[in-house]
Specification:
By secondary structure, the protein is mainly beta. Helix content is about 0%, strand content about 50%. Strands 2, 4, 5, 6, 9, 10 and 11 form a seven-stranded mixed beta sheet that branches. Strands 1-3-8-7 form a four-stranded antiparallel beta sheet, with no helix packed on it. The radius of gyration is 13 Å and the shape is globular.
């Protein structure tokens, strides 16, 4: 498994931006599908976005056009650029790694994002 550490969370007003980072350990980062999930208080964890080994992306409808995922295989890092943030984006954001055609088996500890109106 790969070890994941998120950073970059914080508090921002609605309409603002944040960039989350997720640093991965190991030499096989490029083999993994990487994803971001989030969990708001009292709600189940939900999918936000993923990026494949080749760079193909898949976004939840709720974040399309506002969030952008990218990966830097040389730095073993995946990023989540979040623009036009809304109060409903408030959640703990988790980075995850998985193998193609499999489930996400490795998770970070999460980073809090709070958007105030």
């Amino acid at each position: 498994q790969v070890q994941l550490v998120e950073s970059g969370g914080g508090s921002v007003q609605a309409g603002g931006s944040l960039r989350l980072s997720c640093a991965a350990s190991g030499r096989t980062f490029s083999s993994y599908v990487m994803g971001w999930f989030r969990q708001a208080p009292g709600k189940e964890r939900e999918f936000v976005v993923s990026v494949s080994r080749s760079g193909s992306t898949n976004y939840a409808d709720s974040v399309k056009g506002r969030f952008t995922i990218s990966r830097d295989n040389a730095k073993n890092t995946v990023y989540l650029q979040m623009n036009s943030l809304k109060p409903e984006d408030t959640a703990v954001y988790y980075c995850a790694a998985g193998l193609p055609f499999g489930s996400f088996g490795s998770w970070g500890q999460g980073t809090q994002v709070t958007v105030s109106s």
